[in-house]
Structure formats: structure tokens, C-alpha cells
Amino acid sequence: MLIVLPFFIGITAFSQVAFQFRIDTKEKTAVRNHLIGIEPLNSTVITRTQTEKKMLAQPADRDVNIVTIVDIGTSANPYGYGYAGGQRSLVWADQAMNTVTNFHRMGGALDPGGYSGDYGYDISKDGGSNWENMIEMYVATENEGGTYYKDAARYPNHAVYNPVGSDNPDDAYVVFFGPNLWGSNDIWGGYSFGVASIGDTSYHTKNIWVSDDEYFYGVPDGYDFTSLGLSIVIDDNYDLVNSEYQGNLIVSKGYWDEGEEDFLYEKELLDAPIDAELGFTVDEKVAFGPDGMTGYITVLANNGEAEEQSGFRNLYPIYWKTTDGGETWDGPTFVQLDGADGIGGIVYNHLTDEQIAELFEPPVPSREEISYTTAFDHDIGVDAKGNLHIAVVIGPTGADAFSIITAEGYLGAVDIIVHSDGSAEVEEMGRPRTFRGTFGALTEDNRIQITMNNAADKVFISWLDTDLEDETDNQRPNIWVRGFDLNNYLKTIGSPLEDGPTNVTLFSEGMWQAYMGTVAKNTLESEAGVYLLPYTYEDLDPNDDLQPVQFKYITNFTFTDADFTIQGIGGEVPVIDMASVSQNYPNPFDEETYLTVGMKRAGNLMLEVRTLTGQTVLTNNYGQMAAGQHTLTIQAGNLTPGVYFYTVSAGENKVTRKMLVN
């Protein structure tokens, strides 16, 4: 029986660090995303039989359904969705055709005897209300006596493409790209790709690439399909047999050929040097903006270029940018997370003084000395202005190389925004309580993902987390999400009483069991200002990774423009001109309140007060002010009781804080 064999990064303890941890940090270390083996079989010979699906018993107290959830397709086991850090194009939504698809491996209750190496899809042509399920369009047939079929397809990515540009999904094709087992000893060694006609389900294509001495095909994590019809796939060029990273990424680009009625792919290598101690890129992604010309490739890795804090080895985003539709790529460029040149919202805002004192033995480090790292998977999007958005979980770096501290309160689900000039800021979307779930031989981290509206001026960040107080790991996940309006920096509110993310599966049948929850890259918008997020998840047995699974679709989770009410403040922090901005005192107040601004150097000083909805109700321009401490006064005046945000601007920096008027 084959078993999953992750390659663990070597754990190196640092004895020459500037500071030491004082709490049980619960560090998690990255696992090798590429798998030498694959999911176990119930038999050592090829089989298309399966055991019956086990349905989880639902808790008796679930008497409220906030969202409506329907059954769609099934699969022989959870591995098609359950690839840690892997593919994020399993669900596709197309606004023009009002179509949603769920792409998966076959088998399960709706495909008796089905083989997990075959591909199929479920489709709704009316925006997710009604579904046609289990449309098979790829069948593995190549067998040379091994344990698995050589062309057994595994972790797929997919999209929907309409070459005639109509609003009729029957004119469109499902486009797919995934790895297969065309290698030696059942090791990843090939790609499977092709198309399937939606209108004529008898038509589908099947193409195979097999690794050679230059291109070592593994499990491609990055996929996007652009508005100009480019199918683009990213994989790291890693020799699994000899455990050797080749120093580059494999970029596969597919173009529609009308005569062939298929996508024809070309491939190239993109230089991506990585620190030798790490030895691979932890995760790869690709995304393009609405124009189809501006795009980014990102990896989570360490290439030795970012400044390390206090000797700790961390992971950070590295990106390449194109403005010509993927013909050429500029990079690599790293994102400095920490230190004096890091992102202020991380360096100065991520940890409170109390958390720093709790985390480190005295003398505690300064904020500029604390090392931060990304977790081990991420997702990206590109907004209408061509800015890169990186959805990722961040936290302080652990004592072991490339590890992250997962103690409650220390993780943040964030949107790192990289502007066209290369500057970066951060918006925090929420604080996950837990980090990793383990289900048999499967592991799944927070599975953070990014969805954009069709105008690409709103970002929705989703992740998995457990809200049960007695759970220390992410074994019983809900889906969480928060929206962010890029025009006015307003964010959605979790509830009338909570400034935070929304629990999508709260009080639904998916509560505490939204395993491998996945969302489309784009929203569906049935009317202006209403954004439906197409979510799916697996109903699985968390104690048995060989059981068949039922896919679930959430039909009616939406945000509206009116849900964006909280002023975003995460990225607006002092870096150059301001040393500090105090919280106002008293707070709450009914007559007047005071705040202190510390300026590092002379500059123009301004104060603005906004309502929850972003309306500016007070502006004071103090003009040129000298370096030093300044006390500002805010009069309640005509302010009605409620929540307000005040923003202090000095030079090129600004800080926003919340205040209450009685």
C-alpha cells in the first residue's frame, strides 16, 4: 500500500538568536507540497470498486439555516480537493453566462465503481440554483501493470471558456489542466489537459505531457484563465526522484485553436532562484487583471534577498509581473514583510505590546526586530488598477527554520496589496484561532482564497477556521470571509456587534464540517451591488481519508454594497514621518477628547473624522508642524452618538483609529 510521504523541511534550531520565546508557541513547519506517493488504495491492484459513503451525523441543535446548501457531485475520496496548498480553480463562475462549475475526480455514490483517476464536473446554468452533476469527460485507460493507471489524473485546475463570446453556456467549453502519474514507480511525471464541450457532452479531448530531462512535471498549484482567452499554469520545476529543485518555474500557456477545437499549449522556464536550505517554492500562484494584460506570478519562498530579523529564517512573497499578457515577465521581486523597511501594518500593528511581552523572554525585541513569515499556502488576484493582492496567513516566525507560530491570537488572515510602484500595504481581514486540520493522511491549513467582483474593485478573502473553544487544531472548520472595498477602504462587518469576518456556514448543515471549503475566483452579480460568492466544500468522514465524499454547494451567500461599513485601518501606520498616534482619551466622550501625535520630522499635519459609512464629518488641516509631540482636540459638537474613525495624516503616512461618542 502506498502512503503519502511529505518532504519535511529540515528543522534547525537557532542558538544564536537575539531573543527567546517564553510560551508554548505551537510552531508548525511547512511540509513538502509535492507528494512522492499518492493516496492509499484499498487494494494493491487497480480497482474501480468503492465502499459505501459514510454520512456524518448532524448535531441535533442545528435548527437555523442561514445559507442554503445543496448536494452536487461525488468523488471516490477527498484527495481531489484535499491537496494542501494546492489548486484553487476547482469552482469557476462566469458572469456573462450565469454559470457555475465544480470540477472534480469521479467515483462516490453517484458514480458506482468510478475511478478516482477520471475527471468530471457539475454545472449550473442558472447561477447555482439547479445543477446537472457528474458529467464525465476524462477517462484513464493507460495501464502497464502498475498499481495505478499511468494517465490517472489527480489534482485539477479548470475554467470555462466561450470562444464565440455568447451568453449561452452550451457554446462554451470546460478547460482543464492537472497532473497525472505518468512516471516511474507511481511518481508524478506528467500533465493531463484538454477541453470538454458543455453543449455536446460527447466531445472532449485528452492530451498528455511526460517529464523529460529539462521539464520535471509535478503538481501545478497556479492556474488562471484570462479575459483574453489565455489558459496559464504554473508549477515549480522539481525532480521528485532525486529531490532536486531545478531553480525555475514551469510556465505553460494555452491558446484556443478553432481548427483543433482545443487549447494548444507551449511551455517555458522562468528563473526562480531559491535559498538552498529551503530547496523549493512552497506555493505558486498566477492571476491576471480584467484587461488580460497585467498579471502576476507569485511564490511563497525565501530567495535570500529579504532582510532577516534576528537570525530567523522566514517565508515571504516573491513575484513576477507582466504587462503584455504573459509574453514577458519582470522579476523576481520580493516583499519585505518585517523590519524597519517592512510593511508598517505588520511591523507596528500585528502584535500588541501585551502579546510581545507574552511571546518573548525579556528583554523583549523592538517591533523592528520581530521576524514575520507567511504560512504555507496563498492566493492572489489583480484589481482594476493593476495592483497585486496576496491573500495569505501571516504570523511571527518560529524558532525552527521556516516555521510559523500558531498560538491563538498570533495569526492574521490578510490582504497584502502591492501597488504598481512596488510599495506594499496590508489589510487584516481576521484572526484565525486555529491553523491546521488533519484528516487521516490528509492535512489542510487555513486554505485562504481570494475572490473579486467583476469590476475588480472589491476583494473578498475567505479561509477555514474552527470557532469551537475546545478545538486547538482546525479539525472542525467553518468558512469565514471578509470583503474589502478598494475605492473607500471600507470593509464588511461580521455581525451587528462584531467588527470582523463573517462566518458563512454558521447554523447551517456545513457548520463545523465545511471540509476543504473552496470558492470561485469571481462573484456572480444578479443585480448591481449584490455579490454572490460561489462556495463548495466536501462532506467527508474526517477520520477516514479513503471514504467517498459528497460535494456541497452553498447557493445564496451574498454581500451587498450596504454591507461595507467599517473603515479599513490595517495598512495605515506610521513608517517615516510619524512616530506615534495615541488612542483618543477619554473614549467614549460626549464633549471633547484628546490625542497625541509624535512627529519624527516637520511636515503637514491633518486630522479627519469619518462615520461608519465613510462620510467625512470633520477636517482640520494644521499646516506645517515641527517635529515633536502635538496634542489635538476633537469636539463632539454636532456629532451624533455612535462609532467614528479619526485619521491623522503627516507627510506620506496616516494612521486611523476608532472612537466612540456618547
Give an overview in words.
There is one protein chain. The protein is mostly beta strands. It has two helices and 43 strands. It has a four-stranded antiparallel sheet with strand order 2-34-33-31, with no helix packed on it. A four-stranded antiparallel sheet has the order 3-4-5-6, with no helix packed on it. It has a four-stranded antiparallel sheet with strand order 7-8-9-10, with no helix packed on it. A hairpin with a 4-residue loop joins β13 (244-257) and β14. The N and C termini lie far apart (67 Å). Mean pLDDT is 87; it is low at 1-16, 42-65 and 571-575.
Helix/strand layout:
Layout: E1 27-29, E2 69-75, E3 91-94, E4 99-105, E5 119-124, E6 132-138, E7 157-161, E8 173-180, E9 190-197, E10 207-210, E11 222-225, E12 231-239, E13 244-257, E14 262-271, E15 283-288, E16 295-301, E17 316-322, E18 330-334, H1 344-347, H2 353-359, E19 372-382, E20 388-396, E21 403-405, E22 412-418, E23 424-430, E24 437-439, E25 442-444, E26 449-452, E27 458-465, E28 478-485, E29 490-492, E30 502-503, E31 515-519, E32 530-532, E33 535-539, E34 549-554, E35 558-560, E36 564-567, E37 578-581, E38 592-599, E39 603-611, E40 616-625, E41 628-635, E42 642-650, E43 653-661
Antiparallel strand pairs: 1-21, 2-34, 3-4, 4-5, 5-6, 7-8, 8-9, 9-10, 11-12, 12-13, 13-14, 15-16, 16-17, 17-18, 19-20, 20-22, 22-23, 24-25, 26-27, 27-28, 28-30, 29-36, 31-33, 32-35, 33-34, 37-38, 38-41, 39-40, 39-42, 42-43
